[in-house]
Design brief:
The structure is a homodimer of 246-residue chains.
Chain A (H helix, E strand, L loop, with lengths): L1 E9 L16 H12 L8 E2 L8 E11 L5 H11 L4 E8 L10 E11 L13 E2 L6 H11 L1 E4 L14 E12 L2 E8 L6 H13 L8 H7 L14 E8 L1
Parallel strand pairs in A: 3-10, 5-6
Antiparallel strand pairs in A: 1-3, 1-4, 2-3, 5-9, 5-10, 7-8, 8-9
């Protein structure tokens, strides 16, 4: 029995999220079904670095699983990708240390959020970026973002349903840049609360559209109250980009 | 009654092609249904510069239609796009000369074909570019492309089902360039036969993969026989990019 670590990309558009559930098509469900086929009907469970919601994408989700099959990385990729539907693709499979855990061993993550601001909606971006009509003050968003970088209690910026008691996280980087006519927000940190990236994005967009003043951001953080932050930005703009390990 | 000229973009992935048909979802069908709603149930026919097949995309399809509604370009765009499904989008609507015809008045078209050559398939490109595994000799493809530019009988490069008798067309440009890690083939000409762009692309890919020699291209043209050219490249890589008028 060997533990494997793998990197998976998926287009979240047609999934009811990453995590397996009784109803609905899920990324985990598709992967476990294929692994079962490769193991002659024996169930093989996979553990991811974390879930992603319905419609959220991944470029570099990391999972681990145990297997008695002795395949090389290239053989695993070929076997898995030839059986998986074309909206999931493995790009790397390697032998991991026996105790490696995709979730508990992760020391950080990078998410990216894509926004396009064309006056007219673009049919090719409908599943892959959020559409914001009208001008956005990018410089104001950048200045507001600076207030959020660092170690803070992010209670105001996570779903009210969050059960985690400790909402202190370190946001080590929040870059905003224009790239190919779109706005790309890059978030890096040691951990992210439920909906944190999407609520921060929604709040920064409020600043960019003049609905919220930059000076009120520190107060939003201090309030520790979800209702004072902006709306949760839509799922389609969000990508789990990379997961970091020691 | 006024004639309007409009530019439409659509993601062809979920359509059974542009042209209306008894069964299946079509671009024309969706547009005519929305125009009918805007005209209180009166049918309004639209005429396009030409059809596109199932899975083929358009950035700049051009259509015309007649209407008694007196709306500005911006009003038309707003009215149409708010009722249309999100895989179709109008980017321009303007009053045309009374006799303007989207198909007969077109003097040329530009198509683009996107190819990616990553060893592993990319879930985000599955509907938007053709996937070719392994190395491709781009310089060889460029040299082969030169043999096809100009005025030729393109019988070898159109579907055997083509009913048009005169298969002489002028391909004024066939550029091949690498762009964002993908290969982009740009075709411009005064007219294109059925499947012509996809068969030329399939043939150039045979050259790029060493399955066909550059020196045989003139012979393929001269043969006027579909069976001597390469396979028809898949629909998902093809975009009707622009339609030209006087």
């Amino acid at each position: 029995m060997q533990r494997y670590k793998a990197i998976v990309a998926y287009d979240g558009s047609s999934f009811s999220g990453y995590q397996i559930q009784p109803k609905g098509r899920t990324v985990q469900g598709e992967i476990e079904q294929v692994l079962r086929k490769l193991h002659k009907g024996q169930p093989v469970g996979v553990t991811a670095s974390g879930r992603t919601d319905s419609g959220v994408h991944a470029r570099g989700q990391v999972i681990h699983f145990d297997s008695t099959l002795n395949l090389s990385g290239q053989q695993w990729i070929k076997a898995l990708n030839s059986l998986l539907p074309d909206d999931i693709s493995f790009s790397k499979v390697e032998v991991a240390a026996p105790g490696f855990h995709a979730r508990f061993d992760a020391v950080g993550k990078e998410y990216r959020y894509f926004i396009y601001t064309n006056p007219v909606r673009d049919p090719f971006r409908r599943h892959y970026a959020a559409h914001v009509r009208g001008a956005v003050d990018v410089e104001a968003m950048k200045r507001a973002a600076v207030c959020l970088v660092g170690t803070h209690d992010f209670t105001s910026f996570c779903s009210a349903k969050t059960e985690t008691e400790n909402r202190v996280r370190t946001l080590s980087r929040l870059n905003i840049e224009e790239q190919g006519g779109e706005l790309v927000l890059t978030f890096a940190g040691n951990g992210f609360l439920y909906n944190m990236v999407r609520i921060i994005t929604g709040t920064l967009l409020d600043v960019g559209r003049g609905k919220m003043d930059i000076s009120s951001i520190p107060g939003v953080l201090a309030a520790k109250d979800r209702t004072v932050a902006g709306k949760t930005a839509p799922a389609e703009g969000l990508y789990l980009w990379e997961v970091f390990y020691e």
